[in-house]
Amino acid sequence: MTDSTVANARRSIKAGSKSFGLAARLLPPAMSQDCVMLYAWCRHADDVIDGQDAGFVGAGNDATPPAERLRALRDETHRALAGGSAPEVFAGLARVVSRHAIPHRHVDEMLDGFGMDVAARRYETISDLLDYCYHVAGVVGVMMARIMGATDPGTLDRASDLGIAFQLTNIARDVIDDARIGRVYLPRALLRTQGLEGVDPDNRADRAALHRCALHLLDLAEDYYRSAAVGVAALDRRPAFAIAAAQAIYREIGVILRRRGPDAWDGRISTTTAGKLRLIAGAAPGTLLALRRPVPRFDRSALFRRPG
Fold it and tell me: Per the count of CB atoms within 10 A, which of 104, 112, 119, 237 is most buried?
């Protein structure tokens, strides 16, 4: 893996996710580098499918139909995983997958998640939505956990739970922005509980009802965050600190959305740099600095069960 490959991956993170970038810097150097390379492929794949650049809509200019982009992305990824010549972001993924014995099916599961977006899948139930959340985020948690040395299925389940919690938080935050590009992740059954049949981003009369739907997802995310904390306790101190910090930063997005109410969608919902640093510091006592690390208890039997 060349220095330029890692440098480009870090630039991708800086543009696409400052929160992940901060958390990655808390990891041991080699572990951080591999997490960054995995993230870079995930970010690149997401941008290819969405026609974005580093996560910002409108920066991309690829007029190729999304289904063809997904097919090319899948082919390029499989070629790299099989040891063939590939662009650096794919070669970096292949190195990380090989080094940490990450099953190739996990990479395919994420590609299948992108396929759900390409097919404009609509979600009828919360169970349907959780399946999507696993494929685009839960499986990323599983792969990251393997980079951090976790192989126990129970710990990997908890890593998946954290990815799902992140994605549920994302969906709640982005209800209006997603609707503006034709994507609705709120399940139909949930919308109907509030007398809605869809999401009209320009109809402010629906905002209160949509906010109640978003709060339902945030309530659900709380169970997944609590479950993930059990897995964090199984990691070594440095990665446990990094993941606890990432969890605190991401969970804060939901806290802000709750506090601001429906008007939250009128602006950017994010934490300040000072707020992120405060949350990182708050993660240290229970992980990095604890004389005895507490092991929380949470029964995850009612949560999503990942494939395999």
Answer: 112
Residue 54 burial (CB count, 10 A):
17
- The number of domains in the chain is 2
- At residue 290's C-alpha, the angle toward residues 289 and 295, to 5°, is 135
Tens digits of per-residue pLDDT, 32-68? Answer: 999 999 999 999 999 999 887 654 344 455 678 999 9
Q: Is the same domain home to 65 and 150?
A: no
CA–CA gap between residue 208 and residue 261 (Å, rounded)? 8
Rounded distance, CA 57 to CA 41, Å? 18
- With beta carbons less than 8 A apart as the criterion, state whether 90 and 76 touch: yes
> How far is residue 79's CA from residue 266's CA, in Å, rounded to a whole number?
43
Give the model's pLDDT for residue 41.
95
The answer to whether the predicted template modeling score (pTM) of the entire model surpasses 0.70 is yes
CB 224, CB 168: distance < 8 Å: yes
